[in-house]
Amino acid sequence: MVRLRGLTRTSRIVALCSAANFINSADRVIMPIAIVRMTNIFQWSMHAEGWILSAFAGGYLTSQLLGSFWVNRLGAKNILICSVLLWSIATFITPFLASSITALVICRKVLGFAEGLGLPTIFHLFAHSIPMEERSRAFSYLLASGSVGQTVASIICPHLEWEACFYWFGALGFIWVILWFLLYPEGAFIGEDTIPLHMPKVVSRNIRWADFILSRPLWAIYIAHFAMNWSSYIIMQWLPMYFSRYLGGDAQSLSLTAVPYIVNSIVGIICGHLADGLLQNKGWSVLNVRRLMTCIGLVGPALFLAIFCVVDHLALALLFVSISMGLSASNSAGHLSNHVDIAPNHAGTTFAISNTIATIPGVLCGPVTASLVTASGANG
């Protein structure tokens, strides 16, 4: 058994969950990069590409609320381990199923289902483990780790055989599961420095499902999350193909799709520290800090994506989409952190509802984008 005595309990929780989110995010961007070469091999139409890319979001949509239920019944640790293991298996076997669109779509749905369990479980852990004054930083590191995972995958995958992309990152998930068991073996020790199998719960007898659905503050979060994800899914699913087909990018250019995620990681951490600094200033309330960060994270990206649409030079397109992704990162200290502010005992559930609604753009943007591009005659 390995014990990391130099790290606090909070640091260990953030580090392990951030590592899981790194793998989670890396696995989901492999296909948008690999599909450029896979289409040349399997001769898929743009509509088939759209359905393959969106299949992930279809699976992701179905598991959000299940994750929030299961985490209270089966334990956060068990759910997180099982979800990482399942999505790693789905990633690893993808090349074996690529010759069948039906099998590939099913595999992508399984990947999405497993990854959909991850963040609600992590939000549950954070809500019960992270002090208020450290939450903005914790969520910023968590989401920045996801951007780092997307960055690493975007840099490495264009230079590997497409099959190897799935093998390597699938294996990385298996390694994470082994390391988790080495660091926290079942029944090894239970103390203040251990992540418990079952997180303590505060049960409120007055909470009803209507409270999650009819709450105006929660709907402000749900709508903000939906808006953020619409642009995020389009960038994740279509940016590599857009660079390759419409801006004349090669393998080296596809690696440049990592730049927006690098900017996103850096800005996210900066915004997290900035938000916590503002919270320590008595002139700023928690609500005003969350509003400020959310406004920056939604209005800023909208402006720069509007400019991105009219640019036909690869370098300028990369610049504007990177600025957009960077500004979007401030949402981690905005509405995404607000779950544990307004509903700390139900953050897993509120995030699951929010992420379910916010996954609808991921389901739609694949086929909708393919249909719009095909109708415009720009897919040739």
From TrEMBL:
Localisation: Membrane
CDD domains documented for this protein: MFS_SLC17A9_like
Entries under InterPro entries matching the protein: MFS, MFS_dom, MFS_Na/Anion_cotransporter, MFS_trans_sf, SLC17A9-like
Keyword set, alphabetical order: Membrane, Transmembrane, Transmembrane helix
Statement: the UniProt record of this protein carries the keyword Oxidoreductase: no
Gene Ontology cellular component list: membrane
Signal peptide span: none
Predominant location: membrane
Pfam family, one: MFS_1
Boundaries of every Major facilitator superfamily (MFS) profile domain copy: 13-380
Listed GO MF terms: secondary active transmembrane transporter activity
Protein name per its UniProtKB record: Major facilitator superfamily (MFS) profile domain-containing protein
Organism: Cryptolaemus montrouzieri
